[in-house]
Amino acid sequence: MLISLSVFWRALKYLWDELFLLSVIGIMWMLLGLACIVVAPLTLGLSLMPLVPLTVGLFFVTNQVVRGNAVHFQMWFVGAWKFLSRSLFWGAVNWLVGLLVWADLGYYGQISGDIGVAFVTLAVLLALTWIVWQILTLACLIEAGPLGLRVAYRMAWLLMLSQPLFVIALIVISGILVIICSYLPVLTGHAFGYMTLTANAAVLWAAEKRSGTANRSRED
Asked: What is residue 3's three-state secondary structure?
């Protein structure tokens, strides 16, 4: 069953329903991110680590929105604290991968001709796939609750394998949002909030599908 269009539309509806709260959180997240990015070159990206728990906190809030629960501003910090250790480990993994991608792009970018272009293109595609995997992993981490980060990675990978059209659509929409935000940076927080809603809606859909399949199996 294809979920791409329905999930993206539902995420847009969720964003509209909680526009004020998600706008406040998104703008604060964006401003904190800008402060971390300013000094990122001096710290090889380590200055972004304080933003990681708050990013997971945003996923926690949007998970509650997707579930139809009442949300409030304090939940942003509740989610950040609840998943603090796992979010920092997730951030460390992505910091290492980010350094590898940066080094690869710098090295292969110096190679002239079609080979260099091919390697750079491959590196960019792998980076985009990795980013989608990370977004879905955080959504799975929230949904899985007490389970570990390893389980969340596995859940996200299985979702990507089972829904390739959704993954492609997510990459395309992410690219469109990046282009829009490059012209309208003030929308960055809103755009990322929409992506977290989309990821949470997809993960919840997958969980409901597994639950329905399991119930039918027991009935048979």
From this structure: coil
Round to whole Å and give the CA distance between 55 and 53.
5
Which tokens belong to 53?
């728990």
> Per the structure block, which two tokens stand in for 7?
């999930």
| DSSP-based three-state secondary structure for 1 | coil
CA pair distance 89, 69, nearest whole angstrom: 28
Structure-derived torsion over alpha carbons of residues 88, 156, 120, 189, reported in degrees to the nearest 10 = -60
Pull the structure tokens for residue 83: 């998943």
Taking a C-beta distance cutoff of 8 angstroms, is the pair 32, 51 a contact? yes
DSSP codes joined into one string, 17-86: HTHHHHHHHHHHHHHHHHHHHHTHHHHTTGGGTTHHHHHHHHHHHHHHHHTT----TTHHHHHHHHTHHH
Spatial CB neighbours of 187, under 8 Å, sequence gap ≥ 6 = 180, 181
pLDDT digit string, tens, across residues 164-211: 888 888 888 888 898 899 899 888 889 999 999 999 999 988 877 766
